[in-house]
Each structure stands twice: as structure tokens, then as C-alpha cells.
TrEMBL record:
Keywords: Autocatalytic cleavage, Cytoplasm, Decarboxylase, Ligase, Lyase, Pantothenate biosynthesis, Pyruvate, Schiff base, Zymogen. This is Aspartate 1-decarboxylase. Its EC number is 4.1.1.11. The modification Pyruvic acid (Ser) is found at S25. It comes from Rhodocytophaga aerolata. Pathway: Cofactor biosynthesis; (R)-pantothenate biosynthesis; beta-alanine from L-aspartate: step 1/1. Is synthesized initially as an inactive proenzyme, which is activated by self-cleavage at a specific serine bond to produce a beta-subunit with a hydroxyl group at its C-terminus and an alpha-subunit with a pyruvoyl group at its N-terminus. The keyword Cytoplasm applies.
Amino acid sequence: MHIQLLKSKIHRVKVTQAELHYVGSITIDEDLLDAANMIENEKVQIVNINNGERFETYIIKGERGTGTVCLNGPAARRVQVGDMIIVISYASMDFEEAKKFKPTIVFPDASNRLIR
């Protein structure tokens, strides 16, 4: 039996841009992606802390060290610049393996930089 569980989470990151007229996705600073064990094109769930919206999209790698978190395309309508969001990815794994698995959780600072 396989189950779905939390693989990675970027917790309380600030939206820096919303680009309606762009191919849909979320652009995330590559430093945040590396820290969270996420990759480009990975499916993610976005939870908007400010308005309660929950939706799915995929990741585009953003410029390293910029703190960029940009919702693109239709997803841009679900956020405002400055909103706090949670970016979540899940994995499917064997039930016994899942019991031992530890997710990666990142808590960025107010500028979307890694807390060292």
C-alpha cells in the first residue's frame, strides 16, 4: 500500500510578485527550492494564509538569492503581493517507508531568505 504524505514545505513565505499575463506556475528563488528539497516542475499546493485560498500549480526556478516568490497566470488572481503563503509538496511512498520518513520544512525570514 502507498500513501501520500508531506515531502517538503516552505512555511510563511511572502508573495513578491503576481504576473497574470504569464504562463501559469509559481516562481521560487532557487535557494529556497534547494533548502526545501523541491525541484523545477514539481507539483505543489499553495495555501494563502491571508485569504484561505488553496490551489495547485507547478514550480519554475527563480533567480538564486533574490527572495522571489511570484504567482503566474491564473494563480496570480488568488494572491496579492505581500500575502503570506505556504508552499507544500507531497510524495507517494510505501506505508512502512512513510513511517520513517521526515519531511523537509523551511522557515524563511521576512525577506524570503533562509534563516542561517
